[in-house]
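Hi R.,

Here's the chain you asked about this morning:
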Amino acid sequence: MIKKSDIVRDAVREGDFKKALRIAKGFRINITVEERDKMSRAYECIVHPEFYRQIGTDIPKAIAEGKEVVSRLYGA
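And the predicted structure, written out as tokens:
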């Protein structure tokens, strides 16, 4: 059986952050609320950039923060 965390690790290794963030943003064990929020916001900025631009979110910064968290937690 393949675990979701293994799928996230593979996605990070392959550079597929959209896939990694889509899965990891729902994780709860050993992840702080702040880390989960950053991953969730990064994924949402990738999927719905226009909405987040309209509400004044710094899109590149939010995505970079989410990538940093998922890479730190699940990088190789």
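The chain has a mean pLDDT of 95.

Let me know if you need anything else.
M.
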